[in-house]
Amino acid sequence: MARGSETRERILEIAEQAVLAKGFGATSIEEVIAAAGITKSGFFYHFKDKNELAKAMLVRYIAENDRIFDDLFGRADELSDDPLQSFLIGLKLLAEAMADLPNGHPGCLIATYCYQERLFDREIRAIYQTAVMRWNDRFRSALARIDASYAPRDAIELDRVGAMLSCVVDGGIIMSKALDDPRILEQQIMAFRSYIKLLFTPPLVAYEREPA
Question: CATH 1.10.10.60 spans which residues of the chain?
């Protein structure tokens, strides 16, 4: 990586950590500059203003999440041709990845932006809205493949169940932080996995044994 790219990446990492810790409004360009060990002109070489920094952080965050989902659920597809088993494997891999984070998940940048949406322009709001809808559609598509092969045990709307995983992940992050327990995110993903397994697995049929 070129030196300029390394500096830009370091600025984004420092800014993201600060924003997740205390919010975008409370994060100043000056503290990012000081933490990165660069001059003010060095910062403005990479970002013309704070809004552009916010946009770059968001695009980077979305790309990293896309990479994680592509990797984990792609590996799951390689391990099983069955759509239900593949999705269950993918959820297990996702839960394990979250459990491997040493201090728990640092937080959701999109959620942080949503909480302070008045600080951002329409373009930034459109970027994170599009990303969330794309992730929901990813999960809905996986559920549609399952639905084509398995009859659900309850009437469901695939759009809502697909969006549920995004809610589970963000809710798990919030609860983990609120209760200072990094295990909660992993546990909530596994609880969602159990729901999907129960939803699409046919119930066992008990047969009465004929008298001898």
Answer: 1-48
Q: 13-18 long-range contacts, Cβ below 8 Å, gap at least 24? A: 15/53, 15/57, 16/57, 16/60, 16/61, 16/106, 16/109, 17/106
CATH superfamily of 60-200: Tetracycline Repressor, domain 2 (1.10.357.10)
Query: In sequence order, which residues have a C-beta less than 8 Å from that of residue 15 and are 6 or more positions away?
Result: 27, 32, 53, 57
CATH number of 1-48: 1.10.10.60
Residue with tokens 């984070």: 101
Spatial separation of the C-alpha atoms in residues 156 and 196, rounded to whole Å: 11
Residues 66-109: tens digit of each pLDDT: 999 999 999 999 999 999 999 999 999 999 999 998 778 888 99
90-94-99-103 Cα dihedral, nearest 10 degrees = 170
* Residue 180: C-alpha distances to residues 71, 177, 197 (Å): 28, 5, 29
For the full predicted model, state whether its pTM sits above 0.70.
Answer: yes
The tens digit of pLDDT for each residue in 121-178 reads: 899 999 999 999 999 999 999 999 999 999 999 989 999 999 999 999 999 999 999 9
In the chain, list all ranges with CATH 1.10.357.10: 60-200
